[in-house]
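Hmm, what's this shape?
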Amino acid sequence: MSGGKYDEGLFRSADWYDRTINWSARLTRELPVLIDVFGPPGDGGILDAGCGTGHQTHGMAQHGYRVVGIDASDEMLEIARSRGRGAGSDATFHCAPYATALDAAGGGFDGVYCLGNALAAAGTAAGVADAVDQFSCCLRAGGRLFVQILNFEPMRSELPCVRGPRVTQVDGRTYVSVRHFTFGPESATVTNVTIFEDDGWKQRAHSGTLYPAGLAELQGWCGAAGIKVDAVWGNYDRDAFDITKSTDLILVGTKE
């Protein structure tokens, strides 16, 4: 196997980000739940916070929602905009970190969602807390917040802590990815390793820093931001959250 390439652009390398996710399976799992939580499309629209390459953004737009996506990566957004032109989606995008979400996207949204560890990618406790506050500022009274991250607590005791494999097909080529998590006192490093065949077997590794927020922290930050927590689930099947064994930590709240 060739040496491949390693970099720290897991959350910004758009090309490789898309090759690590089975988008068909993911959208089939996510979109029906989002539509149920947010209800029929309203005038306020929906904010996709940490939209990446825009798969969910365009998926929601195709279900009749006015959707605005924000992301800190110009490279991700370039692909998101191109994908929208090809799909006839009218979703709009702004390049902005969570800290300036309100300035970039405006307020009065009916809903805000942040999926797939995008919130944890804020990298620090202060960054995640600020993001939750900004999401609240973007919501109208009665607007809903939907956040999904991994349930990090049971992962801390796994040595090694590996998730996957994920298998995707892009342009007729198969990509197999696994993610390795290493936990420190205040953060977690996640490294995605993707293996593929291209004139021999090759690999590509990308790394990024997460803040492994827990339920109590998220509930506290929501309360401070004026968001009432309505539900906490352990997966997209809406099973009750179990800190010892749930795969995900999904929080649904309403701005008071």
Residues 1-8 have pLDDT under 50 and may be disordered. Helices lie at 14-18, 23-38, 55-61, 74-87, 101-105, 125-138, 215-224. The longest strand covers residues 139-150.
